[in-house]
Amino acid sequence: MDRFPQAVSLTNYLIGIGKAPVFAAVIASVGCYQGFQIKKGGADCVGKRVTISVVQAIFLVIVVDAVFSVLFSWLGIGLRPR
Q1: Among 2, 5, 61, 77, which residue is least crowded by beta carbons within 10 Å?
Q2: pLDDT of residue 82 exceeding 60
């Protein structure tokens, strides 16, 4: 813990803290959407929708992270060499 401020800048720490709720919202939204798509079918249908939601959530988190990366690059904030 003593070395944490030397290893991670405050800006990068706050960026990570800020992005986490956005990723959580993306994952929760995908999971809820796919869950509501289940009309009938039992456990087999649930399993298929879970698989679909995991793949979609991973893909969307990567896309949203890329958008954050481009945005932060344009704004000039983020990772800088020490």
Answers
A1: 2
A2: no
